[in-house]
């Protein structure tokens, strides 16, 4: 019934139980995929507006599949760091070669400290561009 879009309250009415019982039974029956088998070599980090207009963090495979690696309830550096440190081994994190991010500076320190093999080539290009760009231009 839940797959057909019926609310927990609707299911509770049909089954003559409370909505909290319906939610508890669904939670017990559904086994969520806790993590990917391994971290991909190339990751994408971004944030998106989720429940109640709060910003959440998403990480996905930057290759062809674009499989979701993680969705976190917020985009705080502490939360992201704890997620990758607790769920991924040092070897898995060392195998990551690149991380694609927008120009959000929040991720730079975290990426450098958590993913040792990631190159900062784009960051160097950005700094090089900004040195020669007209500060008042639209492109800057």
From TrEMBL:
The UniProt entry, under Pfam families, shows: DDE_Tnp_ISL3 (PF01610)
The lineage's top-level taxon is: Bacteria
Indicate the segments forming the Transposase IS204/IS1001/IS1096/IS1165 DDE domain, all copies.
43-117
What PANTHER family does the database record attribute to this sequence? TRANSPOSASE FOR INSERTION SEQUENCE ELEMENT IS1557
Report what the protein is called. Answer: Transposase
Taxonomy of origin reads: Bacteria, Bacillati, Bacillota, Bacilli, Lactobacillales
């Amino acid at each position: 019934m839940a797959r057909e879009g019926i609310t927990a309250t609707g299911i509770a009415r049909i089954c003559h139980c409370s909505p909290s019982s319906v939610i508890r039974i669904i939670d017990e029956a559904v086994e969520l995929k806790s993590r990917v088998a391994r971290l991909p070599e190339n990751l994408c980090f971004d944030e998106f507006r989720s429940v109640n207009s709060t910003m959440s963090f998403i990480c996905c495979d930057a290759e062809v599949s674009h499989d979701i690696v993680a969705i976190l309830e917020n985009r705080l550096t502490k939360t992201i760091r704890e997620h990758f440190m607790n769920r991924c081994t040092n070897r898995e994190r060392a195998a990551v070669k690149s991380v694609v991010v927008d120009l959000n500076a929040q991720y730079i320190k975290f990426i450098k400290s958590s993913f040792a093999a990631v190159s900062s080539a784009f960051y160097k290009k950005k700094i090089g561009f900004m040195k020669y760009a007209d500060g008042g231009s639209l492109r800057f």
